[in-house]
């Protein structure tokens, strides 16, 4: 019989009810034992919708429940630090939505709190759990496209008309780098297998959107002279693409961050020919839940413990570069 991880959900955001909660229920290793909101009416409605046995009208009540092993935190970005640390102190393993914090100092505090409590902490980059990512890394490591030279990543959408959106609240961790730029940034770190040395970023900071970065583009320098060229935005035409360029070929990955089943293909260009790879499809949120549980039960985590800290160092350097309009070193 598969060992089950008993989950508690702290907050009823759309990412929780629309993606993560259904995935936990579909997973082999997880069950949702409780859900909490700031009010019992909301959490009770969500519990009824998902057939969950317990609903709480405060996050504190859920953390006090001894029948909860792990929590998922989909709260606004500025609340992540507080509730990750409180969950760790309550002895709960933590899956926290990305970006995990507002800066690397917060992220380091969160990582240390979880280490001290002996609980597993993971940042919810679900795309990293899709089987396609493992296949891409294998192709790169085999040298099928030669030595890596550059990665190009894009993730944009247009929701600028909704000025009440929490993604447009500066103090809450709003902006395109936090929301979608973090995806190509994390993908480059993963595929290069290295941490960046410097960044140069330009951004549109919009006064009508609380001066968050509504669009950003930049260059991220990695060791050995290789780089990520990226753009991200919440005020641009919808698109996603990841391209990995080598000395002997390139890999083109459509929909790199939201692929599930039928949209999980990618293309390898070598020797003047194009090979289409119909990779194994999967719901990355389900794989994320099962991989998280595996790490809790003793398997090696997908990424290093300090990955959230390195991720936030890069994001904050990008923001600093955009605000100061100059190259920022990470060394």
From TrEMBL:
<dbReference type="InterPro" id="IPR055170">
    <property type="entry name" value="GFO_IDH_MocA-like_dom"/>
</dbReference>
<dbReference type="Pfam" id="PF22725">
    <property type="entry name" value="GFO_IDH_MocA_C3"/>
</dbReference>
<dbReference type="InterPro" id="IPR000683">
    <property type="entry name" value="Gfo/Idh/MocA-like_OxRdtase_N"/>
</dbReference>
<dbReference type="InterPro" id="IPR050984">
    <property type="entry name" value="Gfo/Idh/MocA_domain"/>
</dbReference>
<dbReference type="GO" id="GO:0016491">
    <property type="term" value="F:oxidoreductase activity"/>
</dbReference>
<protein>
    <submittedName>
        <fullName>dTDP-3,4-didehydro-2,6-dideoxy-alpha-D-glucose 3-reductase</fullName>
        <ecNumber>1.1.1.384</ecNumber>
    </submittedName>
</protein>
<comment type="similarity">
    <text>Belongs to the Gfo/Idh/MocA family.</text>
</comment>
<feature type="domain" description="Gfo/Idh/MocA-like oxidoreductase N-terminal">
    <location>
        <begin position="5"/>
        <end position="123"/>
    </location>
</feature>
<keyword id="KW-0560">Oxidoreductase</keyword>
<feature type="domain" description="GFO/IDH/MocA-like oxidoreductase">
    <location>
        <begin position="134"/>
        <end position="252"/>
    </location>
</feature>
<dbReference type="Pfam" id="PF01408">
    <property type="entry name" value="GFO_IDH_MocA"/>
</dbReference>
<dbReference type="InterPro" id="IPR036291">
    <property type="entry name" value="NAD(P)-bd_dom_sf"/>
</dbReference>
